[in-house]
Fold:
Amino acid sequence: MPRKKITVVGAGHVGANTALWLAQKELGDVVIIDIVEGVSQGKGLDLTEAAPIEGFDSRITGTNDYKDTANSDVVIITAGIPRKPGMSRSDLINTNLGIVKTVVESIVKYSPNAHLIVVTNPLDVMVYAAWKYSGLKPNKVMGMSGALDGARMRAFIALELGVSVEDVHTIVIGGHADEMVPLKRYSTVSGIPISQLMPKDKLDAIMKRTRGAGGEIVGLLKTGSAFYAPSAASAEMCEAIIKDKKRVIPCAAYCTGQYGVKDMFIGVPAKLGAGGVEEIFEVSLETEEKAAFDNSVQAVKKLIDDLKI
Ligand code: APR
Structure:
């Protein structure tokens, strides 16, 4: 079977680490493309030289020419500017919209059948823009949000309870912004509802920390935003598609009425496989959860409406 081809757009913090996770998982050959000359080539070569140590045979190359990305199976878009302290994700909108437009138009020219995983922020707006600019079917376009937000919540729960991260499951829905909605009722440790394992104040504190987790890291780093967990989450989504795993991973998916949302991408639990977003699972929400979700949807919708794309 020929190897799969995965392109990572942007050779910065998120992009380079995404390439590393992809190669370590041997999901296919990886092409890294960036606008800056030499950076993608240098990081690609550096990763190639790590391969004998780690024992992966994925080929990793860097380029500035979209021709080299031709016939990719999956394209992960990380190009764009990250946040600095004091900024919200939506402050990045104008700069990153222009970048996503050029990137997507060049990508689909050479890879008309690719699945697109968008990582650039503000996520829910950028994935919508990527879909519009690509002309692809909506199931082939998705945004990396809940995979990351849910992982952050899992990490906090595991730390609090002293249990394995592997046994903690969470669902975070809504926009990839401070209005996101961690669903505590659907969070478990090996099936045990989390509310039975810790007091309400502890759980509330974890939900609050999850909503602000991206900002917490920006505040610490000061020069940019998180990249290890975002890149790992991107590779996880890519793996689900490449291996047709049918994983259920919350991410920004195109809704056609689910959760009362239409013609928009928003974070919902989605089944990811060879068909991209193959299904959206609708879980029942209590009044308060639905209100929080609607509030998050409105915040994203306002940003999209303002852009008029
Ligand atoms: N085409 C290709 N690459 C581009 C383009 C473009 N038009 N414009 C910028 N880039 C590249 C930059 O040259 C840089 O190498 O995107 C890369 C971004 O890397 P970083 O500045 O390190 O940013 P990073 O932390 O990786 O975040 C990228 O992901 O999580 C989001 O909010 C984050 O929007 C940000 C994006």
Residues 146-307 form a domain with the L-2-Hydroxyisocaproate Dehydrogenase; Chain A, domain 2 fold (CATH 3.90.110.10). The chain has a mean pLDDT of 97. The first strand starts at residue 5 and ends at 9.
